[in-house]
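Q: Given only this backbone (415 positions), what sequence would you predict?
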């Protein structure tokens, strides 16, 4: 029998706000002495009252907009009740039935929801003892949940990488998995090839900290589950971890269902009401997203590989834009792509002669317009990004032409 993997993802991203989600403690906790950035609110001491971080809410909604989500104009926080050593108050303030963002789409995969919650403390295992650092407790944490519509590890990893690019483009988090700013969880099950119904179980593998390990976890878990199914045994629904030394998943605990958490509305925070006007203001403030940036870079003559490297690193992209504004975009791309990030600040290019003279550029523009009637028609029908195809063609023909001047002259010719 042939088998098909069924995958869904949960992505946690720590937001880079100055303060925590519900108190005024500093949110930055990496390389900070343990338990030095806490207060009665993030420790959950009796009588302490949470106050939502407005910037964290704005950023969570902007992330939802960037992922193509609908925004709930009425939303609320809920208490998610469970007992674990890193959760000092016995519950986590999260969102249940009215998250900020729902029904998104990215790379033809469905985003179920984007919601905001507080992070937990961090367990540190020292010898035979387990210590707890509560500096991370209460840090704003966005969770992105997908539908189980992935059937391959490679497809899943492509999606996860694009989410990381979007988060970085928005400037809301470093999304650094080595530091725990972005943590990945994957739900894995297996069904017979051709079956449309979802399997009656799923295995959640939690807190994976690299794309490489996500792929290895999926491959190991898929093989493990197929072996069980072929022996007539349905895999037990459970939460598992991934052992980086053994390259295999390990059982942690039985998988909880929503009712196990006894969700109820957070009594200390009233519901949040947004207006359509506010949402549209936030939508208008979104930067250019990675997919568009990638298209525009390739249109300017960069290779897909160069474009991907620049889009993957906001630092490289900013340096490329700085250098390409005063020189040849291809030369800028080559220099930035091949320079280590820690030396980018000092990177310069020999200044080339840049042609901005309209008398020189206009005849070339007119020929490009005449040679590309379909691109021109697309532009005039409202597909304004089509102009970059024309700019790119001219830059490839004559790299010394100034891209901004080309674009301005094309726009004036197409009025």
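A: Predicted residues:
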């Amino acid at each position: 029998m042939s088998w098909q993997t069924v995958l869904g993802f949960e992505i946690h991203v720590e937001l880079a706000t100055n303060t925590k989600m519900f108190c005024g403690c500093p949110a930055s906790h990496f390389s900070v002495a343990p338990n030095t950035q806490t207060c009665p609110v993030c420790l959950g001491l009796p009588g302490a009252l949470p106050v939502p971080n407005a910037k964290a809410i704005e950023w969570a909604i902007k992330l939802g907009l960037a992922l193509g989500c609908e925004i709930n104009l009425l939303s609320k926080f809920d208490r998610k009740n469970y007992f674990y050593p890193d959760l000092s108050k016995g519950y986590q303030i999260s969102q249940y039935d009215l998250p900020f963002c729902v029904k998104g789409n990215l790379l033809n995969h469905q985003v179920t929801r984007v919601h905001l919650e507080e992070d937990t403390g961090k367990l540190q295992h020292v010898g035979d003892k387990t210590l707890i650092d509560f500096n991370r407790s209460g840090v704003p944490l966005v969770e992105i949940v997908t539908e189980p519509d992935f059937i391959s590890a490679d497809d899943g990893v492509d999606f996860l990488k694009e989410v990381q690019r979007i988060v970085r483009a928005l400037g809301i988090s470093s999304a650094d998995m080595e530091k725990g700013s972005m943590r990945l969880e994957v739900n894995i099950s297996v069904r017979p090839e051709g079956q449309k119904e979802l399997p009656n179980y799923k295995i959640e593998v939690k807190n994976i900290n690299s794309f490489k390990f996500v792929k290895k976890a999926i491959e190991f878990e898929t093989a493990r589950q197929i072996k069980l199914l072929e022996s007539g045994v349905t895999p037990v629904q459970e939460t598992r971890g991934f052992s980086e030394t053994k390259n295999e998943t390990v059982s942690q605990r039985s998988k909880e269902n929503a009712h196990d958490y006894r969700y109820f509305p957070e009594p200390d925070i009233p519901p949040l009401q947004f207006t359509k006007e506010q949402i549209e203001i936030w939508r208008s403030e979104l930067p250019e997203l990675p997919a568009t940036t990638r298209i525009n870079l390739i249109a300017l003559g960069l290779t897909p590989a160069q474009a991907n490297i620049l889009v993957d690193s906001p630092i490289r992209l900013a340096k490329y834009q700085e250098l390409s504004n005063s020189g040849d975009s291809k030369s800028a791309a080559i220099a930035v792509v091949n320079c280590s990030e820690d030396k980018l600040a000092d990177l310069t290019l020999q200044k080339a002669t840049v042609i901005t003279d309209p008398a020189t550029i206009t005849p070339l523009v007119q020929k490009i317009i005449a040679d590309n009637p379909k691109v021109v028609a697309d532009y005039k029908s409202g597909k304004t990004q089509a102009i970059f195809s024309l700019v790119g063609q001219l830059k490839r023909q004559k790299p010394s032409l100034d891209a901004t001047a080309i674009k301005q002259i094309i726009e004036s010719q197409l009025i």
